[in-house]
Amino acid sequence: MSLVAVLLGVLLVVALIVCVLLAYRLSQLRRMGTPVLLRQIPAADDEGWRHGTVHYSDDALRYFRLTSLRPGPTRTLVRQAIEITDRRRPFGSEADILEGMIVLELAAGADDHGGAYEVAMAPGAVTAFQSWLESRQNERSQRRRSA
């Protein structure tokens, strides 16, 4: 066999593996998470939105971007640091991709990078997100450890 045929065969196998991994990730994320669109702000009015899913845990919100092969979350927002600063309906050209969704603006400092975000969710998902936030334990109510 020629070197070109071997290289093409290797490239084909690698492309197939990447496609299988991407399909597996998409199926897993769509089955297990809450679908959202997320973007870091500041951003242009209709740019920067990324499709993904969020998974809630006791201490963090983990965002998994749908088009990423990364095994872990793309962004992790700390539950105690998340603060909703604004709530709005999509406007302008955003309305085409965010139809029927509610956009929440999250204050800077919820992640390791100190970024501010906007997250677009369906109305039911917004209710679940707010309930998850409101049920977090207040820092002052935590028991003090005796030394």
Automatic annotation (TrEMBL):
InterPro entries: DUF2550
Superkingdom of this protein's organism: Bacteria
Organism for this UniProt entry: Gordonia mangrovi
Name this protein carries in UniProt: DUF2550 family protein
